[in-house]
Write a structure and sequence with these properties.
With 686 residues, this protein is of the alpha+beta class. It contains 21 helices and 22 strands. The chain is globular and about 85 Å long. Mean pLDDT is 80; it is low at 1-19, 25-29, 381-395, 440-462 and 654-686.
């Protein structure tokens, strides 16, 4: 798990420094080789994996109009990301042989050059098992990048290996890199006096360059992904062809068959700009009719003009259209196909629920809900905690004020269903608490009627010993999760469930539920106006899901504390498996060195941001995930990983946030608080 988290964060920072390079690259005329598309290097046939980034030297005008470009050049964000990425990438390459290990400066310079000039990567399948790969870095032999390319080339030679030169058509001198045992590891050469070609199959690349065989320039997937659209400027495309990929890897074909994904053709991606926004699109090519797991894509759609009601002022929400009963049927059918034991397990769960609640999962619970749903954060936000754990007992697990609305087919039937579920939930909570030695035996199953003396948060004035759902209102029917004192002190959450006229409301606290019910009673609020309307400009009118978020509340502060976040991520202790002996002394902690002057001021970033949107669109050709925004919120993603690790550590020996026994390394040095984000636990600064 820890390795996968580090890989994810490494990719995020690499993308960040690439973005920095995009912004800082001068808007000069492209070099001579840039006029020839990199796709001309890659053979069209047997293509399994393809990724092409065109480089901003051919798209500088479009890039310079984006908010991301301004954030990276008009604030210190770009300089900080470049510094962070150089250190992070160097740490990630520590296991490489010394001759292949780049320095901080070399790692950053290589990423910057590739982002500016562009690259293409391809993997071709061969009949049977295996295949070949090709990587072309445009302009690698230019004066400013020649030393970096030389280091990359040296790193291609295995220990005790050697390099020989052979002549190829077109007066090309191709270097043949062999291993110590004499087998060939790879080939490389310089094309057009500056492009570096690294490949396993030079003859195919050369035949493609010399137009003896068709190139990817004619590939229909590339043509379709780069198709002209009003306002869209493409920067790069990528795809994975499942048929070709599976032909080269029989085990991949077996996995696809096991997952019942026989109708899946390709995974496609494209990246570009649209005005001030960065636009990307992920596509799943799975034509109708779809069967097996792919049938999950066939859900109802909703018109963007008919969103469920929300309180005035809401600007962040996620709306979607799902038939819960249909989805349950599809998932259980797939589970039964994939696992012979699943059918008995599903039947057991269904029988248990029916015996204890008199309700059938598909017909009586899920069948009463949907398809339209919406979840949102209330305009008035609660005080944010300092982390996932905050200060337990003095802040604790803080949640934002918000609610989720689920469309109901019959309010009366839903109310009856809810009563049965609350009885069942209270029984199960008491049983589980008793099993853990935290409460007395189950009893008092019926929810308490409304009573005077309740708290504003919906709890009973009488002391409680276990969490329990209690009725706080009968019209509309409303349940509030009443928490015992020891739990109530740890969080501001008071889960509330209420039945409106058309929607079932699930809220984080009672006043959020009341706001949702009040909004339902008023004329519909137009959500898609102003900045939100601009965020979804160009989206199809009918979608399966739509999410709108405002990065101004998260991105500026997230970027300001990014050095501390990365340092915490890199130093997170790995917990011992259950029953394993105590860990020994942990490795020395990694210290991120950051110049305080490079840490951006949140108030300098905030004015450059605007709401972004993501939509899920399904049609006869497959699924499209459309996304548009001002700046990627990777800082919040990394911070979420750190907070998850801290939460996990809270349940390890040693208490909340403590490292496992034996972790004797001292924490990284810290500097005093400063306006640029320093403070206790901050990285060391130069």
């Amino acid at each position: 798990m820890r390795r996968s988290l580090k890989t994810l964060s490494c990719l995020s920072v690499a993308l960040a420094v690439a973005a920095s390079a995009l912004a800082q690259a001068p808007a000069t005329a492209p070099a001579a080789s840039a006029s020839s598309p990199l796709a001309g290097y890659i053979a069209k046939d047997r293509l399994a994996v393809y990724a092409e980034f065109q480089g901003i030297e051919t798209h500088a005008d479009a890039w310079n109009k984006t908010a991301a470009s301004k954030i990276l050049t008009e604030t210190t964000t770009g300089a900080m990301l470049e510094d962070l990425a150089a250190q992070f990438l160097t740490q990630g390459n520590a296991a490489l042989p010394p001759n292949a290990r780049p320095t901080n400066a070399e790692a950053a310079a290589l990423v910057k050059h590739v982002a500016k000039a562009g690259f293409v990567f391809a993997a071709h399948a061969k009949t049977g098992v295996g295949g070949s790969t090709t990587l072309v870095i445009r302009g690698a032999m230019r004066p400013e990048s020649k030393a970096i390319a030389a280091q990359l080339i040296r790193g291609r030679t295995p220990a005790n290996g050697k390099v020989q030169t052979v002549d190829k058509p077109g007066n090309r001198k191709v270097a043949v890199v062999s291993r110590a045992d004499g087998t060939i590891a790879s080939y490389w050469w310089i094309e057009k006096k500056e492009d570096l070609v690294l490949t396993d199959d030079p003859d195919v690349v050369i035949a493609t360059l010399d137009k003896a065989s068709p190139s990817v320039l004619e590939h229909p997937t590339r043509v379709n992904l780069l198709k002209a659209e009003t306002g869209f400027e493409p920067l790069g495309v990528a795809w994975l062809d499942l048929d070709s990929f599976s032909n080269g890897l029989p085990q991949a074909a077996a996995v696809l068959s096991k997952l019942d994904l026989k109708g899946l053709k390709r995974l496609e991606y494209r990246l570009g700009t649209r005005g001030a926004a960065i636009v990307d699109e992920f596509r799943v090519a799975a034509p109708s009719p779809r069967t097996g797991l792919l049938s999950i894509l066939d859900q109802p759609k909703f018109d963007l003009k008919t969103l469920p009601p929300v309180p005035d002022g809401v600007t962040e929400f996620a709306a979607f259209s799902v038939d819960p009963a249909k989805l349950y049927t599809q998932l259980t059918a797939f589970a039964k196909t994939a696992n012979p034991d699943a059918e008995a397990m599903i039947q057991s769960v269904e029988a248990t629920v029916k015996s204890k609640t008199k309700l059938r999962i598909r017909e009586d619970i899920l069948g009463r809900l949907g398809p339209r749903m919406i979840a949102y954060a209330s305009p008035v936000k609660t005080t944010k905690s300092s982390g996932a754990l905050g200060s337990l007992g003095g802040g604790g697990f803080q949640v934002p004020k918000g609610a989720m609305l689920l469309e109901m087919k019959d309010a009366k039937a839903t109310t009856k269903m809810l009563d049965e579920l609350m009885l069942f939930a209270n029984k199960e909570i008491k049983t589980q608490m008793a099993a853990m030695g935290m409460a007395g035996p189950p009893g008092g199953d019926a929810p308490a009627p409304p009573r005077t003396g309740t708290t504003k948060k919906g709890g009973s004035a009488a002391a409680a010993t276990t969490p329990e759902f209690k009725v706080s209102l009968t019209n509309p029917k409303t349940y509030v999760l009443n928490l015992p004192t020891q739990f109530a002190a740890m969080t501001n959450a008071r889960l509330t469930i209420a039945v409106g006229k058309k929607y079932l409301v699930i809220a984080t606290m009672p006043d959020a539920a009341r706001d949702a019910l009040a909004a339902e009673a008023k004329p519909p609020t137009k959500l898609l106006t102003g900045e939100v309307a601009k965020a979804i400009e160009g989206f199809p009118p009918s979608v399966m899901a739509l999410s709108v978020s405002d990065p101004r509340d998260t991105v500026p502060e997230g970027l300001a504390k990014l050095p501390a976040t990365i340092q915490a991520l890199m130093n997170a202790p790995k917990p011992n498996p259950p029953g394993a002996p105590p860990a020994g002394v942990q490795a020395a902690p990694v210290t991120i060195q950051v110049d305080p002057a490079k840490i951006p001021q949140p108030d300098a970033i905030r004015p450059l941001l605007f709401p972004g949107a993501t939509a899920v669109v399904v049609d006869d050709q497959g699924l499209r995930l459309l996304s548009r925004g001002a700046f990627p919120d990777f800082a919040s993603m990394l911070d979420g990983i750190v907070q998850f690790q801290a939460m996990r550590g809270a349940f390890q020996p040693g208490g909340p946030g403590m490292a496992p026994p034996g972790a004797g390394a001292k924490p990284p040095g810290a500097v005093g608080g400063n306006k640029k984000g320093g403070g206790a636990g901050s990285p060391v600064v130069d």
